[in-house]
Amino acid sequence: MKHSVCLETRELGFSYEDGLPVLHGISLTINRGDFVAVIGQNGSGKTTLAKHFNGLLRPDFGEVFLFGEQIGDKQVSELAQHVGYVFQNPDHQIFSATVREELNFGPRNLGMDKETVDRRTEAALACFELTPVADRQPAVLGFGLRRKVSIAAVYTMETPVFILDEPTAGLDLRSTTELMLLICQLNQQGHTIILITHDVRIVAEYVPRCMVMRAGEIVAYGPTREVFKQDQLLRQTQIALPQISELGKRMKSHGMRDDILTVSEFCEVYNGMQVADLQG
Ligand SMILES: Nc1ncnc2c1ncn2[C@@H]1O[C@H](COP(=O)(O)OP(=O)(O)O)[C@@H](O)[C@H]1O
Ligand SMILES: [Mg+2]
Question: What confidence tens digit (pLDDT) does each residue in 32-55 have?
Answer without folding.
Answer: 999 999 999 999 999 999 999 999
